[in-house]
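Lay summary. Proteins are chains of building blocks that fold into shapes, and those shapes determine what they do. In this project we predict the shape from the chain. Here is one chain we studied, written as its sequence of building blocks.
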Amino acid sequence: MAQILITDSAGRPHAWADYETAACYYARDKVLWEIGEKIKTFHGGVNTKTGERSYLDISSILGVTGPLLGDEFFTRESIYTDRWILYARDRYICGYCGDEFSGRKLTIDHVHPRSRGGKNVWTNCVTSCKPCNHRKGNKTPQEAHMPLLYVPYAPNIFEKMILRNRNILADQMDFLKARVPKKSRIFN
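And here is the predicted shape, written in a compact code that computers can read:
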């Protein structure tokens, strides 16, 4: 099912919302602007005086005011809660053997091992299959003679939103992709 892209007033994405949550933004007069296709219409009651039925059209992208998700999702360097976004960033491909796996068969590998001071940040983590992660162990790729096949990088907020949702509508994808750096793996 399609979801609504919720942004702040400047167009910075904050969440994917269901239709009902989006309707609440409209009902609370929190929608500052809307773009994209009208993708859902809610029908209300009938006005006894006019005989007209009320309705609410929901657009695919909303710029809203008021409480949104905190910036923590967008600015954090740690990837503990972003395992699936990391796998999507790396296209479910092991950074060492180059094979593609299902998410259940993948792990996060710290290029510079955490036990040796490596951090749990985007630029130090790659998707790894369990056998390669075990083989590399507590070594750097150079020490393990397992060169990385791609360079880890920190996706920007727009790319994270693309990687986070599987059912993105065309107008939402256009909106997000226009703000993703051209060097992103999304374009490759």
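What the prediction tells us: The mean pLDDT is 89.
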